[in-house]
Amino acid sequence: MAAAILMGIGMSFSLLVFYAYCWENGQIPSSPEKGGVIHREAYYGGSALSIRVTTHYREHSKTDESGGYRDSGSDIAYALYQRGWNIATPKDAPDPSHESDWVFADTRDGMALAHERGANTFWTNTVLYEDHPIDDLAFDPYRIGQATTLALIVENKAVMEDWLTQRGFSAVEHDLLSVSDAAIPPGPFPLVVKPVRGRGSQGVAWVKTVQEFRRVMHEWPKELYGGHALVETALPGQEITVAVMPQGRYSLGGRWVVKDRVWALPLVERFSQVDGIMPYSRVVPVLENSRVIVEAALNYRDIIGECVGAGESLGIRAPIRIDARMDESGRFRMFDVNMKPNFTGPGRPGRENAVSLMGLAAQAVGWDYRDLVENVAGQAWKPSR
After folding, report:
1. Pick from 66, 70, 302, 355: most CB atoms within 10 A?
2. What residues are paired with 320 via a beta bridge?
């Protein structure tokens, strides 16, 4: 059985190759050397699997300032390279300090180039959408990432919050307002105003008065965020984020463990908000305003269970991250579902502080960044035609 992985970054992907072999007694064997290259062993249902992986970045985005996720795509590819995975890249000798050496665009041409260079599995570390070119390729790659159909629910925050509420999950109350007609606030202050589609805290404002609300609406950059704004009831309590993992086989505690249901990593608490909002991780590193909560996990059982339930209902194929915050009654309410959570991590030069919330949660189960990336890569899947 052969497969290749294409990893998508923003609007580009990067390619990696690895070999998988039958495993015995659930033990994780050491990686053998083959022709001077160490090939990481991985396991899919006990069958042999040969994979060449690529990562991709997002080619076009009005609101993305990260270079289309080239940074995280390069981090992912380099982490697998460090673990002995044979990866396909745009250049034969990629420089760890040059992001563009490691990733391909998530355009039709970018994916075709990745395929020409040997990729048979695509890691879609990119923003997916209906009719994304990955669904209409002449070849049929394995994927690491979500199905594009999930974007119809998750990428529009208003649709996502409605979807959660309709299924009985605890979601923040909200209204979708036309910026041009929003002279009157929809509810009591404080309120949170945010783009319907957006990345992290970009464009998000915590407003406390009618004057602030009207100013935010008047100054709303329609060319970036469109003519509507999502207005939420502000949640004043503790803020957390939950990394939700798909079912599959994972390396945990030195053994292969089969998770036959969606599950969650230990939750992460967020603190040191600025004007009620978590600052963008490029402004304040995650390590400075986030910490894992393990010892008090039972106190958060309900919200963890809801996040896992949401992941199951969505039919996730790859990790998602759900943000929640406590309301005035002490109940956690979800306010954001991240279909493609940030996957930056240390490894390449100058990336020592590039720890993401996913990486921080992974540390609590004994995974470093490379372990996390390998375990996610292990959940490759192939859509039915």
Report:
1. 70
2. 244
Q: Which among 104, 103, 95, 118 is positioned nearest to 3, based on CA atoms? A: 118
What's the domain count of the chain?
A: 3
What sign does the CA torsion over 116, 122, 128, 132 have? positive
Domain boundary among 198, 233, 268: 233
pLDDT of residue 49: 38
Determine contact, residues 196/229, Cβ cutoff 8 Å. yes
Token representation of residue 265: 């990593």
Domain boundary among 183, 204, 233: 233
Verify that 112 and 204 share a domain, yes or no.
Answer: no
Any residues with CB less than 8 A from the CB of 56 and at least 6 apart, and which? 6, 7, 8, 9, 10, 11, 12, 13, 14, 73, 103, 104, 105, 106, 110, 111, 114, 122, 123, 124, 125, 126
Please tell me the predicted confidence (pLDDT) of residue 8. 43
In 3D, which of 169, 189, 185 has the Cα closest to residue 177?
185
Q: At what angle do helices 70-82 and 369-377 cross, to 10 degrees?
A: 90
User: What's the CATH number where 330 sits?
Assistant: 3.30.470.20
Distance between CA atoms of residues 258 and 123, nearest Å: 22
**CATH number of residue 221's parent domain:** 3.30.1490.20
> Residue 211 contacts by C-beta under 8 Å, 6 or more apart in sequence?
none
Closest CA to 127 of 341, 340, 377, 380: 340
Positions in the chain short of pLDDT 50: 1-50, 61-66
Residue 376 CB partners (closer than 8 Å, separation 6+): 144, 318, 319, 343
What size, in residues, is the chain? 385
- Domain span including residue 355: 239-377
Q: How far apart are CA 260 and CA 373, in angstroms?
A: 20
> How far is the CA of 238 from the CAs of 54, 79, 268, 334, 361, in angstroms?
38, 33, 11, 12, 17
pLDDT tens-digit readout, 245-294: 999 999 999 999 999 999 999 999 999 999 999 998 889 999 999 999 98
Q: Which uninterrupted H or E stretch holds 72?
A: helix 70-82
Q: In this predicted structure, what is the pLDDT of residue 384?
A: 84
pTM over 0.85: yes
